[in-house]
Amino acid sequence: MIQYVLVTFLTALTTWALSWAVYKIALKYKLYPEIRDRDVHTRPTPRLGGVAMFLGVIAAAIYASINPFLSQTFSDAPGQLIAVLGAAALIVVVGVLDDLIDLDWMIKLAAQFVAAGVIAFSGVQLYSLPIGGITVGSSQMSFVLTTFTLVLIMNAVNFIDGLDGLVAGVGLIANGAFFIYGYLLVRSMGQTSFFNLPLLLSAILVGICAGFLFLNWHPARMFMGDAGALLIGLLMATSAVAITGQIDPSALGVGQGTASVGRTQLIGAFIPIILPVAILVVPLLDFVLAVFRRTVAGTSPFTADRKHLHHRLLDMGHSHLQAVLVFYAWTAVISASCLIAFVVTPSWIAVVFLVVGVIICLLWTFAPRLNRWRARSIAVREARAAGETVVPEPFRAPRRPKAPAETPSDAPTPDLPAAKDTPA
Fold first, then answer.
1. Is 226 marked within a binding site?
2. How far is the C-alpha of 237 from the C-alpha of 79, rounded, in Å?
């Protein structure tokens, strides 16, 4: 555990330093795109945070290679780790080009499939589902299923990247939970080779998210861009597949009455596949809604719009920071519920925690509407008490004003206070 915590700390520190360096270079050479209609910021801001995050991953991999404990990852699965780094490099290059010159969505999608295919070809695949030992089928089916899973998660994470600190914070919480889950499996099942890669990737992910969050917290000095969001999605998906697709439920004692984690057969069999989905439930929900919405409208599923969940929270009346914290809360509640179900007896404790957490999150999510409804009800009662005639009006959420059509041509300098974001 200490070694993984150390690599997380060093990765965070390196990413933080590299983020400042990339930020200064981006300002000096004006490497930032024009503001789009769907953006919520009003002044040009560099989008090269993904470059710093990728360099942080490389630095962490170099440190791991010379660390006697972490170097097991290189000896156990050298081809897999190299494939992951190569795929990440491709994703970052394409993401940076898209952030600077706005690539066609088909080019980006093709690059994502190539990157996912490289990882699947290296051996990181969904060979089986941890539900009664169900096998995926042929090697070709495993390759296809893994590739599509990686691409799906990459896009799901990228879709929620619309507010300062949103993806970095969600990634920090989700990967922290996933690392704890993987570490508990190691303690329960014994050290096995296929755990080294996902644990190392999870530790690195927590580090790059924490390090970049310092510059990405609202109001953000720099965005991670598509390069950073796709990088986080790729590494999250890879670590999840590396564990989920290779777990044998019998190793957990499931069905044998000896389960030390996952105290019941149901929990023990399903938690390895529930947790990876659970920590990504918010990005996946946004992705599914976006694809459905755009398909019904007759447009491409990858056509950008301003109807994502974080945009709806802003339109509902949440401030920028409140909308981000709502996402954090949902991710934390769902991830923590799965971990509690995994290690605590009896299992109903996790259910109670989940129900209470969901109720609190729902009240927080819809608090602006509830407050407006209460204020309107009070106003109606007071008017009626005064003998006034009240004509009920249909409820409409207030629309947030659009940003000015013209924006300053120069980015904020480091000496000036960071620009405050206003909705697009």
1. yes
2. 18
Angle, helices 320-343/348-365, rounded to nearest 10 degrees: 170
Structural domain of 186: 2-289
The number of domains in the chain is 1
Inter-residue contact 60 to 9 (CB < 8 Å): no
Three-state DSSP at 135 gives: strand
| DSSP letter, residue 128 | E
341 vs 209: CA distance, rounded Å = 26
Task: Dump the DSSP string for 325-383.
Answer: HHHHHHHHHHHHHHHHHHH-SSTHHHHHHHHHHHHHHHHHHTHHHHHHHHHHHHHHHHH
d(C-alpha 376, C-alpha 396), whole Å: 12
- Can you tell me the distance from the alpha carbon of 121 to that of 118, in angstroms, rounded to the nearest whole number? 5
Helix ranges restricted to H, 68-192:
72-76, 78-101, 105-122, 139-159, 166-189
Among residues 65, 281, 319, 272, which one has the least CA distance to residue 174? 281
Please write the tens of the pLDDT for every residue from 177-232: 889 888 887 777 665 555 688 889 999 999 999 999 999 998 888 999 899 999 99
Answer yes or no: is 383 within a domain. Answer: no
Write down the pLDDT at residue 409: 40
Q: Is 320 a domain residue?
A: no
Q: Rounded to two decimals, what is the model's pTM?
A: 0.81
- Secondary element (H or E) of residue 129: strand 128-129
